[in-house]
Specification:
33% of the residues lie in helices and 19% in strands. The chain is of the alpha/beta class. The protein binds ligand RRO. Residues 22, 46, 69-73, 128, 130-133, 194-195, 217 line the site of ligand RRO.
């Protein structure tokens, strides 16, 4: 029997596929649909200390090879999502989940994490260090000093499983510097990658989203090679206890297979889930299992990280 089950830290998942934060995860109703689908887990929309309306619409567009968005972190406030994952956690047979959070300042981030630490929530937290779309707030993980400062303080009081959502990096020196920082901390995972920030798509003579005069995060086919490079670069550099979640350009079983080959333990789907809806998890699981069967692999560990190089 071919299995796409996986683990991160002490948590097991029947399937390695799930949504990416930002897609199909704004409300309990959307999250319940992912939970009831073939997905192995869900992650919530990134929650902030206070609810946010986000940027003016239109703020998301499907474009020929993927998507562009400048949502601006609209969310119902982190306690909305925290209450929901605690409720599910207390139901027998519940899947394990990911709660995505970040503050609008370092102080707010620590206030949120302290509140989760004090709660009954025992699941994973994904700290989003890579939102590209809030005017005046740079992507945190491009600032290595700030990133190290946040993690050092967080791990001084936070003892539950914690991972980070990263922006794509584009230079080998940055992979080296970022990995050296992440290896100092007991992270459960890193998630590579968030959207490629601040792309610009033009139709006729006009941009397609309103915020920031059209600049927005790219997802979909545009970003798969960058996502795979980030997954593999961190797989090569991080302590083996830090698992990798692969996100970016997954719309087929073959795409998921490639993320696992690069070292991913779990795979998140954003743009293609937005286009196709939660039935996508059944389709891609089937496609991934077909590829594994053809190649004689029974489980992810049979090929995870085993990318071949040209010698
Ligand atoms: O809400 C957004 O604009 C957003 C976020 Br928080 C993020 O992390 N990544 C993204 O592409 N959009």
């Amino acid at each position: 029997m071919v299995s796409t089950a996986t683990q991160i830290g002490d948590f097991t998942f029947d399937n390695c596929l799930m949504n990416a934060a930002g897609v199909y995860c704004m409300t309990k109703e959307e999250l319940a649909k992912i939970d009831q689908s073939a997905a192995g887990s869900f992650v919530t929309k990134t929650g902030t200390l206070e609810p946010r309306l986000g940027n003016p619409e239109p703020r998301y567009a499907d474009i020929p090879l993927g998507s562009i968005n400048s949502m601006g972190l609209p969310n119902k406030g982190f306690t909305y999502y925290l209450d929901y994952v605690i409720k599910l956690q207390n139901q027998p047979g519940s899947k394990n989940h990911f709660l995505s959070v970040v503050g609008m300042s370092q102080e707010e981030t620590h206030a949120i994490l302290k509140s989760i630490q004090a709660s009954n929530y025992q699941g994973m937290v994904e700290l989003n260090l890579s939102c590209p779309n809030v005017p005046g707030k740079p992507q945190i993980a491009y600032d290595f000093e700030a990133t190290e400062q946040i993690l050092a303080k967080a791990f001084s009081y936070y003892t539950k499983p914690l991972g980070i959502k990263l922006p794509p990096y584009f230079d080998i020196a940055h992979f080296d510097q970022a990995a050296a920082i992440f290896n100092k901390f007991p992270l459960a995972f890193v998630n590579c990658v968030n959207s490629i920030g601040n792309g610009l798509f033009i139709q006729d003579e006009t941009v397609v989203i309103k915020p920031k005069n059209g600049f927005g995060g790219l997802g979909g086919d545009y970003i798969k090679p960058t996502a795979l490079a980030n997954v593999h670069a961190f797989y090569q550099r991080l302590n083996p206890s830090i698992k990798i979640i692969g996100t970016g350009g997954v719309k087929s079983g073959r795409d998921a297979f490639e993320h696992i080959l690069c070292g991913a333990s779990m795979i998140q789907i954003g743009t293609a889930l937005h286009q196709e809806g939660p039935a996508i998890f059944e389709r891609i699981t089937k496609e991934l299992k077909t590829i594994m069967t053809q190649k004689g692999y029974d489980k992810l560990e049979d090929f995870q990280g085993q990318l071949n190089y040209i010698v």
